[in-house]
Amino acid sequence: MHAKPKAALALLLLVPAPSLGAAAAMLWWPGTALGTIIFGVSKLWLFGLPLVWHLLVDQQPLSFSPARRGGFAVAALTGGLIALVIIAAYLRWGATLVDHPMLLQKLTAIGLASPWRYCGAALYWILVNSVIEEYVWRWFCVRQAESFLPPVLAALLAAACFTVHHVVAMSVYLHRPALVFCSLGVFLGGAIWSLLYVRYRSIWPGYLSHAIVDLAIFGIGAALLFC
Q1: Is 201 left (phi over 0), alpha (psi -120 to 50) or beta?
Q2: In 3D, which of 36, 82, 77 has the Cα closest to residue 191?
Q3: Half-sphere exposure of 208 (CA within 13 A, CB side)
Q4: Residues 178-219: pLDDT tens digits?
Q5: How many domains does the chain have?
Q6: Distances from the Cα of 192 to the Cαs of 103, 125, 183, 206, in angstroms?
Q7: Residues 90-144: tens digit of each pLDDT
């Protein structure tokens, strides 16, 4: 198979998986074994497909994506700026855009009302999930998209793919105005992190920026739950 259709096939196999998993677990069959199983399978697919494709289809060696070109200062700056924008937007519009009682009810229902559980979830998302997202959406998705698009357009396509399953998940917790606002923020964040990958050819600058943003988001969540 030629490079362009092969890369397009890789994206077609990858991109729907997290949306289907989120929809199964949160919209179609919430709280059921079926929803949980589909969600778990989608997570395994999301992690495993890029690895198998890289080794067996693209026949490339494994790499830990070393940041040989640097980029951490730019990453810290972008992460800090995005975090400040999120905090400022929440302070300015959070009271009108976010249904606080509903959000608190939803977070409590999934067991995050305990400070220890909340901190555990935050650590997982910041230290593990963000790395997986950089590995999937920046390294694999951007690289595959670059087979048939210029680098900047590949970064924007990867950002759009990154946004889709977040829209599905956030629709459970947010009403439409807040959902549109937050989805735009996810896309812009994904675009910035994808462009960091294009520029520095490593997932780690994007991860640093991503982790700073997640820290701000979980800080806002903690304020909602415990203050």
Answers
A1: left
A2: 82
A3: 18
A4: 899 999 999 999 999 999 999 999 999 999 999 999 999 999
A5: 1
A6: 28, 19, 14, 8
A7: 998 887 877 778 877 877 777 777 889 999 999 999 999 999 999 999 999 999 9
Six token digits for residue 1:
């198979």
CA–CA distance, 44 with 119 (Å, rounded to integer): 24
Cα–chain center distance at 124: 13
The pLDDT of 32-45, averaged and rounded, is 95
CA distances from 142 to 117, 134, 139, 160, 204 (A): 34, 10, 6, 11, 14
What is the rounded distance in angstroms from the CA atom of residue 117 to the CA atom of residue 165?
A: 24
Residue 174 backbone dihedrals phi, psi, to 5 degrees: -125, 145
Question: What does pLDDT average to over the chain?
Answer: 93
- pLDDT bin (cut points 50, 70, 90) of residue 1 is low
Give helix then strand counts, H and E, for the chain: 11, 0
For 44, the token pair is 């395994």
Q: What angle do CA 152, 79, 128 make, to 5 degrees?
A: 95
> In which element (H, E) is residue 149 found?
none
Nearest CA to 156 among 142, 166, 143, 144? 142
d(CA 105, CA 225): 10
> Over 70: is that where the pLDDT of 17 sits?
yes
CB 75 within 8 A of CB 192: no
Instruction: Find the domain containing 207 and state its range.
Output: 3-226
